[in-house]
Amino acid sequence: MTTGSPVLRFAPSPNGRLHLGHAYSALLNADLADRMGGLCRLRIEDIDPARSKPDFIDGIVADLAWLGLTYPEPVRRQSQHMSSYRAALSGLIGRGLAYPCFCSRGQIRARTASDSESPCDPDGVPLYPGTCRHLDVAVAQDRAARGDPHTWRLDMAAALHSAGPTHGYIAFDEAGARRVAADPARWGDAVIARRDVPTSYHLAVVHDDALEGITHVVRGRDLEAATDLHVLLQALLGLPVPHYRHHPLLLDPAGEKLSKSRGSQSLADLRQAGRTPGEIRARLGFA
């Protein structure tokens, strides 16, 4: 449920330069916040220590300023708040809702590759078979204590039992609002903390949305399925559920979504080529 003035956010990851897809999402969030009489925050989601670079953070700030977008200070950087995510994770562990997983990606692939009927999550990845869920607790604790590399996985069955019935979330768009049912079970025992940091995108984003008072989450359609898992984590952590809007993705001429990893033309490239903020806004429908 949302109360008070609407609060939205644009939350890029600094693992590359922003492209037109990011610009569309940033402009849409700013436009909706303005029309709703609220505000839009900027958040830097830099939990990935290998891919997040200071130069990319500087680039994000420069690109958004070039587009004419301003945000309230201070801007939250997730890498500076690992203790908060660790506390949230510890709470789930203490309630028996998460367990350490010592399986490598290669081991998981090997265990699921032979089963052509293995169910997959919404991203098309075979569901984790639960190998480490059945480890003796003392053995698992000993392995974790001596530093064996591990992630933390949500015990989905235990989590669903603890949370009780999930009531989904409110999705909104220009046509109005509607209730959407959530099915977090389709994610299986999802990773909620990586090997290198005590969190994951899923855990950090629901924590920060609540902390920053986000009432309306507007993001790409590629994250729509993840909202089911987020609704469950919100229930487990006692957090409010924002309203959600998942906008269409911008595609390249080959029909693929724009992506930093695919080398999509960046806003910096467009700026260097002489494009103006007004041209970018008009091209994206925000003239």
Automatic annotation (TrEMBL):
Query: Is Aminoacyl-tRNA synthetase among the key words of this record?
Result: yes
Q: Identify one Pfam family in the record.
A: tRNA-synt_1c
**What InterPro entries does the annotation carry?**
aa-tRNA-synth_I_CS, Glu/Gln-tRNA-synth, Glu/Gln-tRNA-synth_Ib_cat-dom, GluQ/Sye, Rossmann-like_a/b/a_fold
Task: Alphabetically list the UniProt keywords.
Answer: Aminoacyl-tRNA synthetase, ATP-binding, Ligase, Metal-binding, Nucleotide-binding, Protein biosynthesis, Zinc
- Where is each Glutamyl/glutaminyl-tRNA synthetase class Ib catalytic domain found? 8-269
Transmembrane residues, as ranges? none
Q: Does the keyword Ligase apply?
A: yes
Q: Which NCBIfam families match?
A: PRK05710.1-4
Protein family according to the UniProt entry: Belongs to the class-I aminoacyl-tRNA synthetase family.
State the protein's name.
Answer: tRNA glutamyl-Q(34) synthetase GluQRS
